[in-house]
## 1
Amino acid sequence: VASKTSRKRATRAVSRRRRPRRISVAPLGDLFDRSGKAKLLASNNTIFKQGQAAEFIYKVLSGCIRTCSNIGNGRRPVHAFYCPGDYFGLETGESHGVRAETVTPSELLLLGRRELTTQAAGNLEVANFLLRATTNELQRIRTHNLLLLKDVTESVFEFLRDMQRRGANGNHVDLPMPRNDIADYLGLTTETVSRALTRLKKASRIAMLSQRRLILLGPGANN
Amino acid sequence: VASKTSRKRATRAVSRRRRPRRISVAPLGDLFDRSGKAKLLASNNTIFKQGQAAEFIYKVLSGCIRTCSNIGNGRRPVHAFYCPGDYFGLETGESHGVRAETVTPSELLLLGRRELTTQAAGNLEVANFLLRATTNELQRIRTHNLLLLKDVTESVFEFLRDMQRRGANGNHVDLPMPRNDIADYLGLTTETVSRALTRLKKASRIAMLSQRRLILLGPGANN
DNA sequence: CGTGATCTTGAGGGAATTCAATGTCGGTGG
DNA sequence: CCACCGACATTGAATTCCCTCAAGATCACG
């Protein structure tokens, strides 16, 4: 539950270019839906641990998942959040390099990883699915990387935009995760995230409907 | 040439676990070496620009390449450095999401990307090569991400270790890139990198042979 | 309706940035 | 061969901004 980081960034106007949408991974959705096994989990449950053998690849049906790791300095970096439709557990090696936990109650679809990777060696469809999924993951991490380099206010704002993009709700954004998780994802502290939100509020770039629900305003809100 | 960032981090002891070696991409090395076209470039030359159509995939034969992008706040994040043996230009879409430049005079091997990706749709060997290469890239970025969350001194030290690991020189490390580039890679400023090096020097964790050549000392130096 | 978890706000301190100046290195030309 | 020059690197002083510690406010849930 550690959430410690420090950061300092330049405070400047930021205008980021659009980032391409994630590539769809349609082709194998079928295979997943056919041979995948569903699983339901409550909040804050561990799906797999760091170092554990990578047995499955997961598809999020509902809820929200976070992956995180431990680095020695008492911080708990959150690597990614996965929303419905996303795949995770795509490990490069035989064991998971991160830990995966449910943020909210979540429904998952599991597919045997060994089954998949051995198939990939001989099955073109599977190989291409893995390539696309990995490519998506790559894109995701690149985006995350850029977030880490921005100044705090923009970093938080970008995060909100990303959540809006992925959430596909009405015109409001729902945050499934606590400030804590956002902070660890952005390399900040809870307090700093909170202050950033306050700043965005005062600048009329967002409006809070509740602590976990808000609306993006002004330029850059809808793209 | 902007190099501005700010950062503040917790100052604590750090002990990171070992990270797995990059997976070899042997199988297609052949294809590369056969149909690739060699190209020689001087320092600080642009190989491809951000947004440009992704025509080739590149293999570094000699020298050093950096990929970077522009975010609106006047910073120039460096995404990665590529050393001899590394592949780059593996784009997720049809156009490059980053800019690639030579750090030092470099020799490259080019392979038509369209040729490769269309082959990937039907050729299993190619599809698997792309998967492995992408997986490597993923691993690389994950490592980079963790670097960004560490405290400055450890971040710089880890960077040096990584360069040693990849450089495969004698017992010293040669840095092909200026402080400037290191700073932008780590999300810091030139001055902060310089101060971190001074700190490492005083702590006897490194020894400078020249400004661009040094030796790692003490525990954690050789792994 | 209370209780704990989550979130916000405030004050103080520390670390990195910024701005500015000095040092060092490599290469070029006299 | 040596001196100069420009690019790169280091160091210093002042400032900024985030973190830390602490208290208060809001929300969710029993």
## 2
Amino acid sequence: VIECNRVYDALLAEHGRQQWWPADERFEILVGALLVQRTAWRNVETAIVELKRRELLDAAILACTPVAVIEECVRRTGFFRAKASRLTKLARFVVAMGGLAALDAMPTATLRRLLLDLDGIGPETADAILLYAFDRPVVVVDTYLRRLARRLAGGDSELADTELRAWVGESIGETPALSELHALVVAHGKAFCRKEPLCNECPMQASCRSAVSVSDP
DNA sequence: CACCAGGGTGGTT
DNA sequence: AACCACCATGGT
């Protein structure tokens, strides 16, 4: 099958550098990762702005902020009751662990397990946090990557997450490239491949098919 | 009006 | 393990 490195180059050529994650501070990345779940990023931005305006975007402060106040800030991100509650738990976790600097010293696997134990943080959010807030070389597997890989494979069979991680990790191992790749995959998915089952308007389609047919006659 | 957005959780088969 | 309803608001 086609190498992920090729796909990365094609995506970069098509969409340009994305330079994720958009944030001023590291804790803002954790908050944004929670809030963006099943939500358009522009709605998250307004919530972040509101949290900043009220000077709440800090783990120690957010941990002591009444949940009702947090709900007001994040209402426009949807699922606001669950997300506000989860932000409180997240902030208290960071404080209890001794801050982000203390978490930096932990191995990736250990930190990932701790993140997954938190309410509202599943595999994708945990990996995005590891990649963008902790600079760990992690492959973020999302629905866009699954669709892209499935189409590149030319089939309808779904690849397992472990297969996807291997496919990406074998050709892309550095944090900066993995960061850019995830952002590019999302940008590409939003631009062309939103609907199943085709992406007829996708500029990559021709190169994808030729690359697949060449390596897999 | 229907459908989707940078998912995760809990319950049911 | 696979599947499902649910969470809730804002934009197209």
